[in-house]
Design goal:
Layout: H1 2-17, H2 33-37, E1 53-55, H3 57-61, E2 82-94, E3 100-105, E4 111-116, H4 129-142, E5 155-165, E6 181-191, E7 208-209, E8 225-226, E9 231-232, E10 245-249, E11 255-264, E12 271-282, E13 292-298, E14 304-312, E15 321-326, E16 334-343, E17 349-361
Parallel strand pairs: 1-2, 4-6
Antiparallel strand pairs: 2-3, 2-5, 3-4, 5-6, 7-17, 8-11, 9-10, 10-17, 11-16, 12-15, 12-17, 13-14, 13-16
Length: 362
Amino acid sequence: MAQNRVLRIIWLVSWLLLPSWTIVAAQCGQERWSVKTGTDANISQVDLSVPPTATTVAVMVALPKPAPLPASGRIQPTETTVWVVTATLSDFKKESDSDYHLVLRDGAGRSMIAEIPSPDCVGTGSPFASQIANARAAFDAKYQVSTSHWGNPNILVQVTGVGFFDIHHGTPQRGVAPNDIELHPVLNIVFNPSALPTPSLTPPLTPTQLLSDPGFEAGATSPWQASPHVIDGSDRESSHSGSFKAWMGGYGEVHTDTLDQTVTLPSGSAHATLSFWLYVETGEVKNHAYDKLKVQVKNPGGSVLKTLATFSNVDAGDTYVERSYDLSQFSGQTVQIAFTATEDPAKATSFVVDDVALNTSP
């Protein structure tokens, strides 16, 4: 017993003599963490030997956000590209996941987030590890970063990092972009780069919108093929924009509504994204799917090539939500973009679709 007591005293004294940084483990993040720190299975898609692509906050915050986000896969090309952004560093703070949260703003007030992870949270084998450590050390040499208050330097910085679409958080984040785009992780940061040559900006790809009448504003003469009364200009449900929208369902009886448009995707379209805004309103309970909306790609004969998503009364909410899907696999093909809503004989569910876009670029 006496020996055990001596060992406990020695352990306690050793613990008290340790520096504080050795006894406080870093708290690391969870959501898509392997992608954030470069330990995911697709990390080889990020080519660090290629010079970073110069861009702007304005270009980054305008990129379409795919849905749903993969837990561990990378979204090409945004999350497989190393970008460099020159902007104002307006705010910074250390977050609960040990990241340094940086807010980048442009002259028009647009903002996006850049994150420098703690090197202690970067897994073994990440090709980003040394650059993350260097960026973190550079920031520590310039500023003292706190978890309790924001720093507001308002200086010009040049930040290099990998593109990353974050999961949308319920609570507002300072500086968050409307599409949740970030530079995560930051691989390099230069403060006051006015003396450095600003990298020439790669002209952003101008996407081509393939769909006609994307907002249904042509009303009865719309090129969309639709069930009666689907293209709606009444004020019973608000549009996302303009005066018209596609209102599917809402009958509260056994019913099917369809909406589709045939389009040809150009050959060589490396990027093709279908996006639309969806509002779901229901009288059904939300713990079981009774009424459904399927979003599909079909061939010109109507055979299903791919079901992109199935929504139901469970997805009801109080506002429009943007949805987007990668259609690059259909490059060079003529397809139907098809929406089909079905209702059971009980309570009504309305699926309101607006501002549909099919954007392609080389």
